[in-house]
Amino acid sequence: MEQAGSLRSDDEVRVLLKSYLSSMDIEVVKEIEKDGNWGIWTRFGNFPVLIDHLKDTHYCVVAFQITLQDEHAIIHLNNFYERNDAQFIYELTRAFSSPLTAFSRIIERGRVIGYTVSKNIYPYHPEFTLRTLDIALQAVVSTGAIGIAFLKWMARVLDVSHERGIEIKDEDPTKLFE
Questions:
Q1: Pick from 83, 75, 73, 79: which is nearest to 148 by CA?
Q2: I need a surface site. Which of 79, 87, 115, 132 has the fewest CB within 10 A?
Q3: What are phi and psi of 130, to 5 degrees?
Q4: Which helix (H) or strand (E) holds 50?
């Protein structure tokens, strides 16, 4: 319990995170707060990333959310789950996994419509550094980009939408990244 006294406050953490993001030339797009929960939307390259904090916790989640917009792609994706296709599940897990990140499915009305790649960070603790934040941001975005490429290949999806309505469109279906 001694460590609890040395933890940073919510306000100190927010200032620290914004300072670190600024020093890395990463734009703070929007700050959100509701009922003691708060978050910071950033843009890492072309990708929107949320740094999310839940009230009464001493960590934040760096999250990159990928949602499918094309109904055909959603049906195609869910057909693999309905068949319990082991090869698909293995390849999907391989695409969305890394030693530094976790991923979860986004389910709406009983169907998988996307995935969230996330990494916990601990900015409340004195050992937290700019390097730790940079590693977390790079990890979720690079893993998410691989996941997007996999979904495009697997579902033949040309329109993949990220949280906050930003769409990546390919004129060339063989092109994986912008």
A1: 73
A2: 87
A3: -60, -40
A4: strand 47-53
Nearest to 126 by CA among 1, 13, 11: 13
Amino acid making up residue 150: F
Place of tokens 């734009």: 27
pLDDT in tens, 82-124: 999 999 999 999 999 999 999 999 999 999 999 999 999 999 9
Multiple choice CATH, 2-169, 3.40.50.2000, 3.30.1460.10, 1.10.565.10, 2.40.50.40: 3.30.1460.10
Which residues does residue 160 pair with via DSSP β-bridges, in sequence order? Answer: 68, 168
Only one residue has tokens 């049906």, namely 75
Residue the block writes with tokens 């990463």: 26
DSSP annotation of 66 reads E
